Amino acid sequence: MNEAAKILELKNVKQQYKVGFGIGKTKTAHCLSDISFAIEEGKTLGLVGESGSGKTTTTRVVLGIEPPTAGEVSYRGKSLSTYGKKQWKSFREEVQAVFQNPLDSFDPRFCVGQILDEPLSINRKLKREERKKKAAELLEMVGLSPEFADRYPHEFSGGQLQRIAIARALALEPKLLVLDEPVSALDVSVRGQILNLLHDLQKDKKISYLYISHDIASVRYLCDSIAIIYFGQIVEYGSTEQIFENPLHPYTQELLRAGVVTKLTDEVEGTVHEVPSVTAPPPGCPFADRCRYCAESCRVKKPVEYTEDGKGHFTLCRGLDPAKWL
Amino acid sequence: MALLEVKELVTYFPHDKGRVQVVDHVSFTVNERECFGIIGESGCGKSMTATSIMRYTNEVGARIAGGEILFEGRDVLSFNKKQLQDYRGGEVSMIMQNPMSALDPLFTVGDQLIETIRRHTGANKKEAYRKAEEIFTFLGIPTDRMKAYPFELSGGMLQRIAGGIAIGADPKLIIADEPTTALDATVQLQYMQLLKKIQRQTKAAILLISHDIRVIQMMCSRIAVMYAGQIVEEGKTEDIMNKPIHPYTKALLSAANPHAVKVDRISTINGQPPFLLNPASTCRFTDRCEHCTKKCLERNTQMYVGSSIEHLHRCILMAEENEKNEENAADRADERSSEDPGTEERKAAV
Question: Chain A: residue nearest B271 by CA?
């Protein structure tokens, strides 16, 4: 990827938490074990994985809510760890987020007008009238009537609230929007409206998206490239076509299959294998228990090196490269 | 044979200005050993239908204003307290959307399963424990997890256990209200397989409620589509999926994209469902329907027969079109027989 085109880059980011209390009882939870990816200017990167895989921790690191234990997050080529107060302020203007549950992300005592006014009054030197006008513009931009400005969050449906959340995120004309499962709480009919809106906004304003989801259909619609995350690791990375046409990692294959199956087959199912514990990660591949191609060697050594096909399609599965098999 | 019959059920929430009629003259039957699905967007009344069947309406502040609910021919609405206690959990059990809030955080999951078994089958502690162990094995969960508290388990596992509790007392009907919505895609698939297995093993009927067309399609043999408190279409799964009649069903299907195929633009249903305060008895989809005519705004709707006797729908326009087609077909048949008198002679000769 062209260096100048990268708006955000994560390099070998690790995130660990201490859990438990008392001497000898504290454990370390390895939530992100090694995350590297980059988002191109004006493009959308999809981060796909099941719950507990580290998607939300990644967003927290990207947004600078918590610094990573190890590794580097850089925005426009500059590491977040070197930021001073002023730089943080401009970073928080340029990088905005939309969260999963819209009702939780608003102050219930603020009406929509105040919600949209707050970022403007803090960050922009505008008169009250100008701010009001801007708020009305924002509402129109996301397809809502400006009259809604006097209403409170509980008066809206989920789809409308998500539009307001997007309007708030757009208030400061951000360069990067972090979308953490923005449509998974919404109905099918409304989901399409929000996805179309996001699609159009990107075309209009050249915003980059980090789109986080476990819904395969919406990822395919919105994203240019996709990173599949499992147990705190990116297990596969490639363009949307590469991932959908030729999924390489067994986990990606399972994920895609689960997303599109419309008939139940009588598969033999034994004990259900859960994701391994983050406080006691297994020595080998964390996916080994669930993998249909799992070999003995997979359980012994953790895969760390990515294999690339030469066209920017990376995968972290040892089994797919015969040279590393033994 | 019909296990559960719901006839013209009306459920409402009292409101300052009248009634918010969330379930409006809903009728359907669930046969023995069948999986019947109700699909619709949030607020369409599908969960309130389930709540009415379980008679939990008073607990959530709703009232049943009319209609009948017959379970094995007995009138559920006239049950007394004792009968209700046996009915809920014993004969009809429920799997809720969010397993974390459906289970008691203060008891181990094993205890909660044993409690259901003992209350409804009269088994002693030992027998109940053994049965609980059997169910855990059936669910594919190691039996040592019986001693775990809900917070120690993942969402997928908890939902499995909720399913286990639902079959603990060998009910005849399981109502599953959005059982997979809180689960991930891969876990969702496993859970559907488990539900299928439960159905095969226990021979219970399942009433599956969901907004996910994929889930419904995989599980159910018959489907009812709900919109704004009414059933707008009902029929066999393959009829609804392949030959939808009502414009709402069509829009819902095209918005779903269950195969995750590549699209340039996602089709949507514009607008919002109406607020159900004292609703009119004309069509409720008019605001969002692209085929809407003056007739739709004036005439009251009813259920019409569609392509087959089992395929019902609530669209005036489609019903008229259907009628016209049938008339034309009849005319054509008449014409043919009058034009070609030779046919009958030939038939007679054969």
Answer: A190
Q: By C-alpha distance, which of A157, A180, A169, A153 is closest to A116?
A: A169
What chain A residue is nearest to B194 in terms of C-alpha separation?
A269
| Among candidates A188, A190, A271 on the partner chain, residue whose Cβ is nearest the Cβ of B142 | A271
State how far residue B75 is from chain A, nearest Cα, in angstroms: 34
B141/A272 CB distance under 8 A: yes
Q: How far apart are CA A280 and CA A284, in angstroms?
A: 12
**A199: chain B residues, CB-CB within 8 Å:** 265
Q: Measure CB to CB from residue B218 to each of A52, A254, A262 and give the nearest one.
A: A262
Longest dimension (CA), chain B: 84
B240 has a pLDDT exceeding 80? yes
| B116 to A66, B88, B168: CA distances (angstroms) | 45, 11, 6
Contacts of A254 in chain B (CB under 8 A): 186
Answer yes or no: are the C-beta atoms of A55 and A180 closer than 8 Å.
Answer: yes
Using a CB-CB cut-off of 8 Å, the residues of chain A touching B193 are 264, 267, 269
Contacts with A270 from chain B: Cβ below 8 Å: 140
Distances (CA, A) of A204 to A160, A210, B21, B47, B138: 21, 17, 42, 40, 54
Going A300 to A232 to A26 to B153, the CA torsion angle's sign is negative
Length of chain A: 326
pLDDT digits (tens, 9 = 90+) for B264-288: 888 888 777 888 888 888 899 988 8
What confidence tier does A272 reach under pLDDT thresholds 50, 70, 90?
Answer: low
Phi, psi of A7 (to 5 degrees): -95, -35
Q: Which structural domains are found in chain B, ordered by start?
A: 2-220 (3.40.50.300)
- Neighboring chain B residues of A272 at a CB cutoff of 8 Å: 140-141, 156-157, 160, 190
Cα separations (Å) of A284 from A250, A298, B106? 15, 6, 36
In angstroms, the CA A290 to CA A274 distance is 8
Q: Nearest chain B Cα to A290, which residue?
A: B186
Q: State pTM to two decimals.
A: 0.82
Contacts by A193-197 with C-beta closer than 8 Å and gap 24+?
A193/A143, A193/A159, A193/B268, A193/B270, A194/A159, A194/A162, A194/A163, A194/A166, A195/A221, A195/A222, A195/B266, A196/B265, A196/B266, A196/B268, A197/A142, A197/A143, A197/A163, A197/A166
pLDDT at A270: 47
Q: Give CA–CA dist B251/B271, Å, rounded.
A: 12
Helix (H) or strand (E) holding A204: helix A188-205
Residue type at position B264:
D
Q: How far is CA A210 from CA A52, A236, A303, in A?
A: 18, 16, 26
d(CA A103, CA B234): 34
The encoded tokens of residue B303 equal 């259920």
Q: What is the rounded CA–CA span in Å between residue A69 and residue B100? A: 31
pLDDT value of residue B85 = 93
Average pLDDT over residues A282-301: 82
Domains of chain A and CATH, by start: 3-109+152-262+276-325 (3.40.50.300)
Is the pLDDT assigned to residue B339 strictly greater than 70?
Answer: no
